[in-house]
Amino acid sequence: MKLNKWLAWPLVMGLVVLFWIPFRAESTSHLFEMTRSITDLSSYSIGTISTAIESYSMNRFVALIVVSILFLAVEWNMNLVNFSNWIEQKSNPVRVMNYYALLFSILILGNFTVKPSFIYFQF
Amino acid sequence: MNEWLISLSAVSLTSSSQQMLFNSVTFLLFFTVFFILYWAVNNKLNVTARNAFTIVSSYLFYGWWDWRFLSLIAFSSVVDFSIGLALKKQEKKRLRKVLLYLSVTVNLGILATFKYFNFFIESLTEFAQHFSVHLNSSTLNIVLPVGISFYTFQTLSYTIDIYRKRLNPTQNVISFFAFVSFFPQLVAGPIERASNLLRQFEGKKKFNYNLCIQGLRLTLWGLFKKVVIADNFGVLADSLFATSDSYSGVSILAGSLFFALQIYADFSGYSDIAIGISKCLGYELKANFRTPYFAKSLDEFWQRWHISLSTWFRDYVYIPLGGNRKNPSRVHFNIFTTFFYQYFGTEKILHSLFGEYYTDWR
């Protein structure tokens, strides 16, 4: 059965997001607990999310979400080529605008306060 | 009940952990100096001097993380360079196989010791406790050497390709050491094949302005993914998973979505920077990610996520097991075996899920 691409990619992405959950489990019982919470619709409340993002100002959080949506839009648009090849095909003003947007995002939204290692170093 | 007190080991290596991350000022300084000197050495001296300079700088880069593990890279390089030459000279099938097994045993032996020793000892201790046998595993703090899997797979592919007569071994020890220790991809890939990267160390290089610009663009994009996307969503995911007492379904799903963005941006960002700075030095590395979250099937996702590892497993595990040319049950076994290591290969997930298995069971 072949799914429509607009239906297929959110389904695949959803599955992949679920696959990452075991990486955050402390133990098997913890994983079962998390799985139970996901399937228990009565546990759905946005209270815990607002607590978790307290460390972020609302402006910063909104800016991060907007930048992330733009990031995913660029990734979608890149269509299997890398960023360098993708940007090369754009006109000069678009290219320069992209460079500035990236630099400003790094300077304004970049998180330099925490020093987490690249995750795959543990691989 | 008898209580046995057995000290299992006294090995204790702790990390000095002075990290030279790609997004650090230390690395910026290191790379700027390296870039200038590299092209100066390249233009004034010969290929060997350039490669020797690359080795020294790569060892300095790795040593910045933990100098004690430099000997492991050097040892791996010596073993596989020597076995490569021996395989070339050896015509007898049986002896060639012995040489191959020697390379596989040494490389995977080192990898298994550093990667899984802690996990197995802890599991053994917990399992023994179930039978009232108390093993005192006097803290086995064996630190996982950074990037050990990446360079192990890289050197293994070299000897396996020579064994299969698909690659001629290099006679140049300096080129080989540079290939194994090349700092842009040493600690987190992409896992390169000798057929692509090693030959690039053997020729003369000319500074290519366009290639360097391409490299700088990729580096900027990788840096953006790392410090804007990965490091911000990492903090948010950690906060969401940390509130474990009040788990709600929506916080777990949001946490997992943020973690998915973090892990992708973190790893692909690192790969982009690695590929980008390599381009500035005149080297072309293979792509490691092709927008995997927009894949339209799980198969396609697998082909677009951590490509250098997936293709490594395809060529050196899946196909030798028979690939899809066997009966359906064997094909499923082959897929499962290949998938199993890639998914469960990280010590983190093994420890998370199975390390406490016996504890939960008790």
Summarize the structure in words.
The complex is a heterodimer of chains A (123) and B (362). Chain A has 123 residues and is an all-alpha fold. Chain A folds into two domains: 44 residues; 56 residues. Helices cover 67% and strands 0% of the residues of chain A. Chain A contains seven helices and no strands. Chain A is extended and about 55 Å long. The two termini of chain A are 35 Å apart. With 362 residues, chain B is mainly α. Chain B has three domains: 203 residues, no CATH class; 83 residues, no CATH class; 69 residues, no CATH class. Chain B is 67% helix and 1% strand. Chain B has 14 helices and two strands; from the N terminus they run βααααβαααααααααα. A two-stranded parallel sheet of chain B has the order 1-2. In chain B, helix 3 crosses helix 6 and helix 8 runs antiparallel to helix 9. The longest helix of chain B has 38 residues. The N terminus and C terminus of chain B are likely disordered. The interface between A and B is large, with 77 and 89 residues.
Topology:
The complex is a heterodimer of chains A (123) and B (362).
Chain A: H1 5-19, H2 21-24, H3 28-39, H4 47-52, H5 58-78, H6 83-88, H7 92-109
Chain B: E1 6-7, H1 25-44, H2 47-66, H3 70-89, H4 93-130, E2 135-136, H5 148-163, H6 173-181, H7 183-186, H8 209-242, H9 249-280, H10 298-304, H11 307-318, H12 328-344, H13 347-353, H14 357-361
Helix pairs in contact in B: 1-2, 2-6, 3-4, 3-5, 3-6, 4-5, 8-9, 11-12
